[in-house]
Structure formats: C-alpha cells, structure tokens
User: What shape does this take?
Amino acid sequence: MNGRRGLTVTTLATAVASAVVLFAATRNWDAIMTHQVSPLPPMTDYRTGSEMSPWLPALGAVGLAGAGALLATRRKLRTVVGGLLALTGIGIIGAVIETLQHRIDVGWPILTLVAAATIVAAGAVVIRSSDTWPEMGARYERPESTPKPGQTQLWDALDRGEDPTADK
Assistant: This one.
C-alpha cells in the first residue's frame, strides 16, 4: 500500500470503520424483559452499546480524528498516529468483549468487532507504510522568500501609519 492510493484507502477504511463503531454504539445491544403482575404485559427495556460500554463512542471519535490526522501529519508523527489507531482498535475490541460477557444480541457487537479489526489493521498499515506516502503539498505553507526592493519600504510605511498608495 504505497503512494497516494495507500494513503487514500487507509484513510477511508479508518473513517468508515470508525463511523460504523459510532453508529453501532447507538443501536440496541441488549433487551431486558421484566415480567409484571397479571394482567399487565411484560415490559422490555433496551440498552444500547454505548450504555453498556461508555467508551465506544469516544473510541469511535478518536478513530475518526485519527483518519483526519493521517492526511495532515508527516513522517514520524504519522507513524505515531498509526500506533494510536491500532491502540484505539484494540480498545474497541476490549470494550465489545466486555459487553459480550452479558447475554446480549450479538449482531451489532460482531459488526463493531469487524470495524475495530479494520482500525487495528489500518494502524498497522500506517506504521509499516507511512514513509512511502505523500505529504501535504508545500503550497499550503508560506514560502520563505526575501522581499523585493521597495516591498520593505511599503511595509515600513504601513508600520508608521502612512498610506503608501496615497499621492503626496
């Protein structure tokens, strides 16, 4: 996964997987049925993934931020972001495994585990391949140039409070 394509695929995979974690955390993961006195029907209480594991939305947001950071960072810092993404994915896996200890519906947790594994894999790809990826172009940075003759005089006039364009 070298070059611009590797950066694009890894960033998109991280962003989509993190969005899946955020979405799945808001879905019902557990249903608790409470029997009531007759003739009242049983009452069902639903708990979402984020209620069962409050870390899920936060870790999903960290994954999304990491996807954006992949585009904005360079060299060693990008490698650090990759490590943080891998740790984020591992944290999501731990949070889901904790909820699986309860008797729950496994559909959303399994999808969340797949998304977390994708985030871990993306972090590993970043650590391994980020040195071959392009960086944000220099056009976004201020050029280091020496001022042309006359430019400094205009700036000096502005500093003194004079209008250099006014006729004297």
